[in-house]
Every structure is written in structure tokens, then in C-alpha cells.
Amino acid sequence: MIFVASVCLAMTVSCAASGPSLTVAPPQLLLPPEADRPCALAVLQPPGDLAALETAYMQRGAQIVACDAARQMAVDALMAERKMAKALGR
After folding, report:
1. For residue 11, what are the CA distances in angstroms to 15, 21, 54?
2. Structure letter (DSSP) for residue 37
3. Alpha helices in 1-90 (DSSP H)
4. Which of 23, 35, 42, 90 could cysteine-pair with 74, CB 3.0–4.6 Å?
5. Is residue 59 part of a domain?
6. Per the structure, how many domains does the chain have?
7. Spatial separation of the C-alpha atoms in residues 18 and 38, rounded to whole Å
8. Is residue 1 a part of any domain in this protein?
9. Which residue range(s) make up the domain with 44?
10. Which residues in the chain belong to E strands, given as ranges?
11. Largest CA-CA distance found in the chain, in angstroms, rounded
């Protein structure tokens, strides 16, 4: 009877010490499509006069704002992934 109890105790202790065998993949968020596209920038079109320069200047400003917003989405997704991974202990 003592032998059976010691065998059960040894098995329980060895199982408890081994820890879980399942592994969980680290979290991975999907980037918004806008964050994965290259940024377009307007160029000065012929005839290259003041009106064309002003038009390109305004287009570039809007494109830079859109590009920065896309970059920020990518950074936010990366930071959220790291936060989730840290919460999981990785």
C-alpha cells in the first residue's frame, strides 16, 4: 500500500513540475492596407508655371498627411502586438 501511494505521489509531483506542454503563437495583428502601401508624392507637371507649382504643393501636403497617418497606423499595430506579447510573457 505504501509503494502504491509513493508511486502516485511521484507521478503527481513529476507532472506538476513539468508545466504545460502547449505553446501559443505570439499575437500578430493585421496592418491596415493603407499602412502597407508606398506613399505617392505629386511632382511638378509641365508647363512648370506658378499654378502648377501651387497645385503640386497642395497635393504633396495632403499626400504627406495621408502617408503620416498610414505610418502611425503601422506603429500603433506594432506597439499593440508588443503589448499583447508582453502580457503573454514573451
Report:
1. 6, 16, 79
2. S
3. 2-18, 33-36, 50-87
4. 35
5. yes
6. 1
7. 48
8. no
9. 27-87
10. none
11. 101
Contact between 70 and 32 under an 8 Å Cβ cutoff? The reply is: yes
Residue 3 belongs to some domain of the structure = no
What are the backbone angles phi and psi of residue 54, rounded to the nearest 5°? -65, -40
Tell me the mean pLDDT in the region 9-19. Answer: 58
Are the C-beta atoms of residues 56 and 43 closer than 8 Å to each other? yes
Cell of 20: 504545460
C-alpha to C-alpha distance for 17 and 19, rounded to whole angstroms: 6
Tell me whether residue 56 is in a domain.
yes
Q: What is the pTM of this model?
A: 0.58
Please say if the pLDDT value at position 32 is more than 70: yes
Calculate mean pLDDT across residues 31-47: 83
| pLDDT surpasses 60 at 5 | no
Q: What is the Cα–Cα distance from 6 to 8, expressed in whole angstroms?
A: 5
Please give the Cα distance from 89 to 45 (Å, whole number).
Answer: 54
- DSSP element (H, E) containing 2: helix 2-18
